[in-house]
Amino acid sequence: MNKKFYFLAGYSRSGNTLLSSILNQNKNIVATANSPLVQIAYSINEMYNSIWIKNFPEKKGVDNLLKKLFTNYYEHLNAEVIFDRAGWGTPLNLTLLTNKIIEKPKFLLLVRPLIEVLASLVKIHRPKNVYDFVYLEAMHPEKGKVYWDWLSTKTIITQYKKDYLLIKYDDLIKEPKNKIKEIYDFFELKPFKHSFSNLKQLSINNVIYDDSVFNSNSLHLVKKNINKQEYAVEDYLPESIIKEYKEWDYF
């Protein structure tokens, strides 16, 4: 089966797991959990600089690995369309993707205000020190998952500037049927009637998230019915953090 590969590359805590659960009702589509492929691609790409390649500079084999990365990795999935979820839009990853793997990738970006993303994570993890959690973990430029999501999304919007569909979290929650139609239209998918109630947890080939590795039981929890849990970000973030990261939004 010839598969088509697209990329889910927006913010964490913006409805990615919910959306994937809905899309995966269609047996012709698999929207993945957080994917390790971006790290695998990076590691393969590093082989160009290895002593073995320098000693005998035949690079075609490494080219082949990257070109067939998605086809081989997702060979076991019986679906026509794969949405791989990862930070493919960071400058290095985007260059690698477009130069070595897929020439003209298309992206689906789910976003919400950054302060809501951070407040949501603080609400779940309940860190002892919110400042350390935000600055040394979530938004750390070298290891912060939220920072890399932000950079990935920003790069796609401000530099790639093409072939992306942006959907805001609030809009997905308020009008899921319309937003699913937008996705189907943008990616030219065959029509399918989705259900928006009695939703199931994200499962791919009977594999589900194990959030205990992050000391959580709700990080990727999908509620049966679509609704937004309302709370004030001020209850979870100090004013200085709200003021700083409120200025980072660009959509």
Percent helix, as a range, is: 40-55%
Q: Identify low-pLDDT runs.
A: none
Please state the second-level CATH architecture: 3-Layer(aba) Sandwich
**What would you report as the Rg, rounded to the nearest angstrom?**
19 Å
Strand order of the largest sheet: 2-3-1-4-5
Q: What amount of the residues lies in strands? A: 5-15%
Structural class of the secondary structure composition? alpha/beta
- Overall geometry comes to globular
What's the count of strands? 7
- CATH C-level category: Alpha Beta
* Integer average pLDDT: 96
Describe this structure as you would to a colleague.
The structure is a single chain. The chain has a single domain, classed as P-loop containing nucleotide triphosphate hydrolases (Rossmann fold). The radius of gyration is 19 Å and the shape is globular. With 251 residues, the protein is of the alpha/beta class. A five-stranded parallel beta sheet has the order 2-3-1-4-5, sandwiched between helices. The protein is built from twelve helices and seven strands. The protein has helices at residues 16-23, 37-46, 51-55, 60-67, 69-73, 91-101, 114-125, 130-138, 145-160, 169-174, 176-186, 239-246, and strands spanning 4-8, 29-34, 81-85, 107-111, 164-168, 203-204, 207-208. Strand 6 and strand 7 form a beta hairpin. The longest helix is centred in the middle third of the chain and has 16 residues, at 145-160. The mean pLDDT is 96.
